Fold this protein.
Amino acid sequence: MTGGEATPPGLTKLAMPKWGLSMRQGKVTDWLVEEGEEVRQGEELFEVETEKIDGAVESPAAGVLRRRVAEVGAVVPVGGLVGVLTDPSVPDADVDTFIAEFQASFVPEEAEAEAETPTRTTEVGGRRLRYLERAPEAPAGDPVVLLHGFGGDLNNWLFTTEKLAEQRRVYALDLPGHGESVKDVGAGDVDAFAEMLGGFLDTVGARRAHLVGHSMGGAVALAYALAHPDRVASLTLIAGAGLGEEINPDYIDGFVAAERRRELKGVLELLFADPGLVHRQLVDDVLRYKRLDGVDAALRTVAAAMYPSGRQARVLTGELARLPMPLLAIWGEQDRVLPAAHADAARAHGRVEVLAGTGHSPHIEAANEVNHLVIGFLDELEGESR
Amino acid sequence: MARTITYMKAINEALEQEMSRDPTVVVFGEDNVGGHGAAGEMDAWGGVLGVTKGLYAKYPDRILDTPISESAFIGAAVGAACSGLRPVAELMFVDFMGVCFDQIFNQGAKLRYMFGGKAKVPMVIRTMWGAGIRAASQHSQSLYSIFTHVPGLKVAVPSTPYDAKGLLISAIRDDDPVIFFENKVLYTIEGEVPEESYTVPFGEANLVREGDDVSVVGVGRVVHMAQEAAERLAADGIECEIVDLRTTSPLDEDTIYETVEKTGRLVVVDEGNPRCGMAADIAALVAQNCFDDLQAPVQMVTAPHTPPPFTGSLEDLYVPSADKIAEAVRTTTGGKVGARA
């Protein structure tokens, strides 16, 4: 990508973000601030719709929104200019010059350049695991490992990975049976996944890591932390499984059974408070995964091992007191898969944040908020240890 | 892992993976083995355009060359399928199918029914279709409607490399006879295809693009033309929803009705001839089942009712195009810019 490398002092380029490996462009669906308005760093500026998902873009800095370069409805390639933010002192002429020069030189990322996939694979006990690694030049503290939920993959962290990787080394993993990892799930239970996680930490040479797990990935993180407390620096459970018996069988059974787009769309809508978030491409991506040879058997094995008869087989709430590391639990108030009341089990042992207007996937539906919570949590505890 | 390969390579890969998975899969057709061992040839030709190239070296006892006698080897495929193999026969151009209609219509399609389900015919006939390479009337027809008309046959018409591989694997694993239509112009297009084996189910249309204003339904090469038209129309504020049928038998009627209920306007695009064709069938189904949803007459974009011409300039006019599709879409909106404006 070229264009706008030399951003003048006091001026901040607001670019179309890249959410997930396959995103090429996004449509600006709403501006949340007016031109001339002052904004704080982290304030949401505009909303973007992609073929897969919708999200809001936060301001990378404090300043004044000077130009909305892309109007509502405009489709902008990844890295393209959406707006310009500046110190109040920057003259209009400089803003205009910057925009003109940027637009004249901007070349969208080539599809070909992207064909080189940034994910890698490694072998754990002879079984293939795919992962995504992102890190700044000088990563701080222990690495962070992101663990998706049942039927998910590393792309579920599309709003999370880059943000956390601004300061830390981040690994997002495809658990066995998921994404592009091995389809052989072994016993398919929490311990089998936890063992693979341990093997993964060994292969990437991570002595200790911060674990962030969503749903089933939360139960895996929790089980691993209980078994190997010395290797887990902190635990973040996002709508984590393992904290109560209840689970919505419509989700698990529906996900396993759905063969067609229409059925699957209804199931995936259970992941969000706002079902409108589920777009064509998201459903297609999950369908493509489900149609790979071996996936159906893998999902059935995992569902039978973890969620037999519509209940969670493994409830770890009684063991939370044994956790020596800091714990953060994040839940969506309107979770339709795992009840938000499960968060109560974590209250005596750590910090609990229940987010209003959010369903089972807060890291997607309230991505910015979750990123702030996780980064704040990690900063705080690493600040203490430094 | 997904990577970018051609439509032709996707078909080759489906055959290779199914031959590796299932020893009952056999491939036969003209020039699949031809060239092997001849002076100056590195490999068997792999069919007239090389779609099966490389397979003979791996499975020399399961790739057969046939004489130029379609009625004989399609009949052999029906018999092989009845007696326990999963043959994939390559019948170069669909235009040549006429000489083996009895084997296909009266034998392959009927046996399961005439023997009360005790017989099955897990056979695939791969064939090239469509205009666009200046090959004249006997090598350019779009005859999927004829096979769609016959109960007992399944008909797949993939438009992308991803669908080509997944539908062919489904076809090979299916216990009914499948006519698999490969568009010769699309052989060189590229798209993301997983390395692993996977299936695309029959009877599920692909929602290629979402839009609120006008539905465009088609199959095969015209899906790409519809996408080009939709891009242009979007610039004028008309949002098309594009449905790629992927298989014409079974037909995903639900998706067709759903999109028409949503938009109230339908353009059906079909490279085949218009009389008793795919487009006419869909238009009739929609008229019967979605009459109250329609806000404008259904438009059909098809080839004219003439044989495909040889002359290049005429052939270009013969097939549907993005221009014709865009024009039909504008007709359904009554010329308004932005259908709901």
About this structure: The mean pLDDT of chain B is 94. The domain at 2-194 of chain B is CATH 3.40.50.970 (Rossmann fold).
